[in-house]
Each structure stands twice: as C-alpha cells, then as structure tokens.
Amino acid sequence: MSKASHEDGSVAATARRAPSHIILATDFSARCDRAQDRAVQLAIQWNASLTAVHALTDMALTEDTSVRDAYRRAAMRNAASLREELACVDGLRSAVIEEEGPVDWVVLEIAARERAELIVTGIARSGPLAQVLVGSNVTALARNSPIPLLVVKKRVLDTDQRVFVATDLSESSKPALMVALRWFGLRRLGLFHGFEPPYRGFAHDSADYDRQFETISLDQCRDFLREVAGEEAIAKFDIVARRGDPVMGLQVLTNDADTDLVIVGTHGRTGLLHALVGSVASRILEAVPSDILVVPSSQR
Q1: Residue 22 and residue 182: Cα distance in Å, rounded?
Q2: Are residues 70 and 195 located together in one domain of the fold?
Q3: Using CA atoms, how far apart are residues 290 and 116, in angstroms rounded to an integer?
Q4: Does 92 map to a domain?
C-alpha cells in the first residue's frame, strides 16, 4: 500500500485547528449508525467536509460471479441511499466513495487522497470492520494512519462533553493533548496518568509508598501540562493519577466521571499508550465505555 500522507500531515499541523475534512468508515450496517451520526455532528460543528468510505472486501466475494455481482449491486444501492440521506442534512458537504480492497487499506488510501484530518468509525462485532477494530489490524491502522482515528461507542453528544486525555507523559503522547486542546477546548478536559511505583515490593509500608508516588506523579502531570499548554491550563484540568493497570484505571474513571471521550496517543513508552498498539488493543476498545480518539505520534 502506498502510505501517502499530507504535505502538512503531521499531528502537530493537524492540531493547529479542527479538522476540515472527515472520513467516515462504514459497512452500511446499523452498527455504524452511531459513528455516522457522530461524524455528521462533528462535520457540521467544525464546518468540515464529510466523505463516507465503504470497502468492497474480498471476504464478501466468492468465485461465483453472480454472488460477486449481487454483493456489488447491494453496495451500490446502499451507497446511493447514504448519498441521498447525507444530501438532506442542512449545511453538510458530503460524498460517498466505494472502492475494492481491504478495509484498512481503502480507508487510509482515501483519507490520504482526500487530505482528511480525522477518520471516524464504529465498533463492529462481525464483518469487515471488525477486522480493523480488533486484533492485529487495529495495530496496523494505529501505526500507519498519519491522522487521528475516532472509535464511536456512545450516542451523539452535546458540545459540552467530558473529555479525558490519557498520557504516559512521554514526548510521543504530547500530540494527544495538543489535539484535545485545539479540537475540544478547556471547558471539561481532564488528564489521566496510570503509574506503577518502582520497587514497590521492597517498601516497608506499601500504602504510604503509593501515596508518595501518587504525589510525585501528579507533580509530573502538572509539569507535562505546563510544557504543552502553559501555566494557565493547569488549573483548568482535572488531573487523575492512579496506580495499577492503566486500562482498568481508565475503565473505572470513565464510568465514575461519566466521560464522553478518551483521547490516547500511540507509541508511548509504557502503560495504556504502549498497550494500544500492542496485543491488548481489543481489550481497550472493549473495556473503555466512552468514545476513543487515537492520535498518532508526530515522530514519524
């Protein structure tokens, strides 16, 4: 696959503004309805163009010509129906594209060609999109996409949404925070950091040791915010640092805080950000009940 990228396609460039072009990856089924509603909402909110993309995948085809032709005709009908539906949305600039090939290949190629700045899709339990969003293909998409990927689980949100940025405080996690600030503002932003104190097993009082390390971690989070967003941003962020498995910690946090969106970066050095591009990516998507925005590292 040609990994075409934008001339200014770094995350740093993307984070200077809200997206002007959004890709919706859809299989035309009801399981993508929430993703479609969310993509439309964001396109209108940000005055962005929206391109819906459907991949005619080999898995749905057989050697039987009649079956292949029937599948393609059905896809064309669904595409025409979606074009008509999107055309009826006031203030929305939209298009629908169908191309043959693996879903992740088609989505990334069209995103590059259209100079899109965000890919939106939904959780699929079966069918072509499931292969993108669980298992090894989510790793390939997270690693190869030069633009953020929004995985939608919740119904359409209002604009006063609750957003948490998950970070391991590494350099490569900064773009996630930048995107959060530029796209969603400071009104309801939080920062989550999962940590594991070193040499905890040797501590005489593990509870006291954990409290001390939590204080250190909170100070590190403030330093991280200060470096990326400036001194004034610190007071406006809810900062949460928790010991233990960052995936479980984030799951608890999103439920307790009624979080609408979690923003995570890829290629972080530890914890959640490393796990996201590793073998437990499907666990993260399963465990965290909010929408998830995956922001690639700018160091590519």
Answers
A1: 16
A2: no
A3: 23
A4: yes
Print the SS3 string covering 63-112: CCHHHHHHHHHHHHHHHHHHHHHHHCCCCCEEEEEEEECCHHHHHHHHHH
141, 31: one domain: yes
In a domain, 30, yes or no: yes
What are the backbone angles phi and psi of residue 30, rounded to the nearest 5°?
Answer: -65, -25
Whether pLDDT at 180 is above 60: yes
Cα-flanking dihedrals φ and ψ of residue 295, to 5°?
-110, 120
- Amino acid (1-letter code) at residue 176: A
Domain count, the chain: 2
- On the CB side of 194, CA atoms within 13 Å amount to 22
Helices (H), 240-280: 246-256, 271-276
**Structural domain boundaries enclosing 55:** 11-152
pTM, entire model: 0.83
d(Cα 185, Cα 195) in Å, to the nearest integer? 26
255: confidence class by pLDDT, cuts 50, 70, 90: confident
DSSP category for residue 198 = T
Nearest to 196 by CA among 134, 94, 271, 140: 271
Q: Which H/E stretch holds residue 211?
A: helix 206-229
Which two tokens mark 127?
Answer: 């069918």
Question: Under a CB-based contact definition with an 8 Å cutoff, are residues 242 and 195 in contact?
Answer: yes
- Residues 6 or more apart whose Cβ sits within 8 Å of residue 92: 40, 43, 44, 50, 86
Contacts of 33 (CB under 8 A, 6+ apart): 122
Higher pLDDT, 157 or 17: 17
The torsion region of residue 195 among left (phi > 0), alpha (psi -120 to 50) and beta comes to beta
